[in-house]
Amino acid sequence: MRRTSAFALAAVLVGGATPVATAPASAAEAAPIGFASVTALGQSGTTGGAGGPEVTVSTAADFTAAIKADGPRVVRVQGMITLAAGMYDVSSDKTVIGVGANSGITGGGLNIGLPVSSVTTPPANAVHNVIIRNLVFRNASDDSINVQMFSHHVWIDHNDLSNGKDGLIDIKRGSSYVTVSWNHTHHHTKNMLLGHDDGNAAQDTGHLKVTYHHNFFDRTPQRNPRTRFGNPVHVFNNYYIANSDTGVACQNKSGCWIEGNYFENVEEPMTNSYAGPKGSIVERDNVYVNSGKPVVGGSVEDPRGYYAYTLDTPANVKTLVTQGAGTGKI
Fold first, then answer.
1. According to the UniProt entry, where is the signal peptide (predicted)?
2. Residues 30 and 52: beta-carbon distance below 8 Å
3. Whose CB has fewer CB within 10 Å in the chain, the N or C terminal residue?
4. How big is the chain by its Cα radius of gyration, in Å?
5. 19-38 pLDDT per residue, tens
6. Of the candidates 232, 190, 184, which has an alpha carbon nearest to the alpha carbon of residue 211?
7. Residue 90's Cα: distance from chain center in Å?
């Protein structure tokens, strides 16, 4: 495990101007904030299955049929559904949402994307406009959620994820315009990966634009997230607690704009020199409690060039996120 000396820093803000105090953010946005809200690639924001039929499923057969069906559809998951090991495809224009706080899937994971190939431009049939919300993910045989092959306009919101075999939320191979928000991740090591490989520049350069906000990174040692190539990657108003290896690791030409987060007992809150080629980090207005010194540098595109957003006051983020992240909050 990579470790550095820790600096016991009191609760301080480091970076630019102190943001204006705002009222507590709602933990139940009706539409995504961040890259999933942007009009691009022929898609105006992310609406999922809106306008399509709604179906409630409680068996593996009904669930897998509904998430891959053609056309827009809202798939409501009732209870915990056990899937055989493997990844299960979600097609375009879908909302997959849990009923209550204790519905979701165990045993398998969700794949949002075409099969892997060597194409380097977004295909016309790339999977797009998908919402995954209010679901419990447990014991996935591979990734809990995988987004790949130029998939775009994906909103992953208010889920509870743990105990997967590989990543909990991995985004790779040219995917873009994704928002990952208000998720609670715990009891897992390799948390979230953005860009799977240092040698995949041909597919990833200019893509992998992702927003991570108001997530609860609860003792997940690494990949919170670990990034490659994407620029900007916007990481704001997340709560980090006891991440024993590193918080954000921004690598290999990626650019991370990291602001308004709350790091508590995190030895290395962020770094652009974790392993392999370096990335760039702009760091602003983060709170550090008993945490290490951020390792930053380089230039990053300002996410405000893509969308508007409002920061919650960083000192309030711990309370906001612990109360609002995860299932049963929408």
1. 1-23
2. no
3. N
4. 18
5. 333 334 454 799 999 999 99
6. 232
7. 17
At the topology level of CATH, where does 35-324 sit?
Pectate Lyase C-like (2.160.20)
Residue 246 tokens, joined = 């590193």
Cα–Cα distance list, 282 to 17, 112, 150, 248, 299 (Å): 13, 30, 26, 12, 7
Query: What would the two tokens of residue 309 be?
Result: 């957003």
Residue with the two structure tokens 């041909």: 202
pLDDT at 318 over 90: yes
State the Cα angle at 248 between 245 and 252, rounded to 5°.
105
What are the tokens at 179? 């928002």
Mean pLDDT of the chain: 93
In order, the DSSP letters of 28-74 are --SS--SGGGSEETTEES--TTTTS-EEEE-SHHHHHHHHHSSS-EE
Q: Where are the domains of the chain?
A: 35-324
* 73 part of the active site: no
**In this predicted model, what pLDDT tens digit does every residue of 113-132 receive, in sequence order?**
999 999 999 999 999 999 99
For residue 236, the surrounding DSSP H or E stretch is strand 233-236
Count of residues making up the chain: 330
| Cβ pair 233, 258 in contact under 8 A | no
Structure tokens belonging to residue 22 = 């705002």
Give 32: exposed, middle or buried? Use CB within 10 Å, 0-12, 13-18, 19+: buried
Both structure tokens of 131:
């919402």
Please tell me which residue in 73, 133, 223, 228 is annotated as part of the active site.
223
Predicted confidence (pLDDT) per residue in 215-262, tens digit: 999 999 999 999 999 999 999 999 999 999 999 999 999 999 999 999
Please, what's the b/e burial string for 206-237 (b: 16 or more CB within 10 A of its CB; e: otherwise)?
Answer: ebbbbbbbbbbbbebbbbbbbbbbbbbbbbbb
Q: What is the pTM of this model?
A: 0.93
